[in-house]
Amino acid sequence: MSEEAFIVAAVRTAGGKRKGRLAGWHPVDLAARVIDELLARSGADPAAIDDVLMGCVSQVGEQATNVARNAVLASKLPESVPGTSIDRQCGSSQQAIHFAAQAVMSGTMDVVIAAGVESMSRVPMGSPNALAEQAGMGWYQSPAVLERYDGVRFSQFLGAEMIARKYGFGREALDAFALESHRKAAAATQAGAFKAEILAIDGHDNDEGIRYDATPESIAAVKLLQEGGVITAANASQICDGASGVMIVNGRGLKALGGSVKPLARIHHMSVMGSDPVIMLETPIPATQRALQRAGMAIGDIDLFEVNEAFASVPLAWLQATGADAARLNVHGGAIALGHPLGASGTKLMTTLVHALRRRGARYGLQTMCEGGGMANVTIVEAL
């Protein structure tokens, strides 16, 4: 019989805007601060950590050469603790959660840190591809892939436009969703809803990207990114610097931590799915439907949802297709207001979801996000 997987600590930095408050931090040191905070909150013996699994998308420059291991060496963990870096695009650290949970459920490990980091100020989005092309190394899509997809260069931006057209969402609907994201994030911040989950860095404990003065007019004034399209910088996720993490243990690991630490949540279901890499960002829809079926649950059984706001068209299409209650979606705002630090977003959303469930006395939460290449992870947790 397999073990259960429990989350005993969950923390994130406040999101930093591009060239903003966190831009001066080396991503390795930023991730190390999250690791140290997880140790402090759980009271875990640093030597008891079996592994550190860390999501990171742009693994080049300061985030190259296994950023997870480098973060271990910059933290209070002993050298005996290993680390490995994961790239499942935007779902990188959500996949880290899955790998960590699978490890403790199998009994091969007892205490694992799943985390993520991305400094989009210091390592700009797309850096690996841009540097490779500059060096004459070519494009990541091979001739066989290009032949299979009629020479289409995969693009998340074009995928977001395709989803908006497919599901019938115009600019006005996307902008209204974006405005609501800022309003929910502002209200959550002012109510102290993020206080338990944020690790203050240099005294900053508020997400830097929230536009408290956002209006329909200010969002509508932002230029389209493509003539005739509907996507703008205002109805898409914000470039963001940040780090986040959760500590995951099994029953033995929980006992090793001592009686003073109580689990925050239990991992109830994990799955991952791939679909069309051209439209790319639609996979959270079939992935959610399959996850609920495998978990023996209905959409109405879930109390809160976190669906990453990579572009407003993604959660809007997800709502339409799944029939989920919009009032349960991204209740504290999402990446449009709070930022999307790529490899850190998976554990960032999980941190927010677990704390929001407990704050509201709710039980089940579901997290999913679109991922480059046409994939999506789904994680269902039960708050304890």
Automatic annotation (TrEMBL):
<dbReference type="InterPro" id="IPR020616">
    <property type="entry name" value="Thiolase_N"/>
</dbReference>
<dbReference type="InterPro" id="IPR016039">
    <property type="entry name" value="Thiolase-like"/>
</dbReference>
<protein>
    <submittedName>
        <fullName>Acetyl-CoA C-acetyltransferase</fullName>
    </submittedName>
</protein>
<dbReference type="InterPro" id="IPR020613">
    <property type="entry name" value="Thiolase_CS"/>
</dbReference>
<comment type="similarity">
    <text>Belongs to the thiolase-like superfamily. Thiolase family.</text>
</comment>
<keyword id="KW-0808">Transferase</keyword>
<keyword id="KW-0012">Acyltransferase</keyword>
<feature type="domain" description="Thiolase C-terminal">
    <location>
        <begin position="262"/>
        <end position="382"/>
    </location>
</feature>
<feature type="domain" description="Thiolase N-terminal">
    <location>
        <begin position="6"/>
        <end position="250"/>
    </location>
</feature>
<dbReference type="Pfam" id="PF00108">
    <property type="entry name" value="Thiolase_N"/>
</dbReference>
<dbReference type="InterPro" id="IPR002155">
    <property type="entry name" value="Thiolase"/>
</dbReference>
<dbReference type="InterPro" id="IPR020617">
    <property type="entry name" value="Thiolase_C"/>
</dbReference>
<dbReference type="Pfam" id="PF02803">
    <property type="entry name" value="Thiolase_C"/>
</dbReference>
